[in-house]
Amino acid sequence: MKKFFCKNCKEISYSSSPQYTQTEKDCPYCHSSDLLDISDDIRIGRLLVMMGFIDKTALEASLEKQMVLKKRIGEILKINQLITETQLSSALELQSRFVN
Ligand SMILES: [Zn+2]
Predict the structure, then answer these.
(1) Neighbouring residues of 39: CB distance < 8 A, sequence distance ≥ 6
(2) Considering the entire predicted model, what is its pTM?
(3) Could you tell me the distance, in angstroms and rounded to a whole number, from the CA of residue 13 to the centre of ligand 1?
């Protein structure tokens, strides 16, 4: 089953959900076409990029630091002041919704 994350209204829709029209690739909630196909094991870093809090370059640089520091990526981003506690919490909250 495919899952989609709407960048516009931040809602998650499923390809099998009744409100999702198979023919149209738009958000069933706000009809935005800004949808992202998301996997089940969505990483927090990817979410932060999706939510527009950090860019890919910042994430990649932080992932490299993570290998050395052995800390959570969210912690590293916070230490480097790339994201705020609030941004991290909202990303973690969103991530928890992906877990079945
Ligand atoms: Zn939407």
Answers:
(1) 3
(2) 0.65
(3) 9
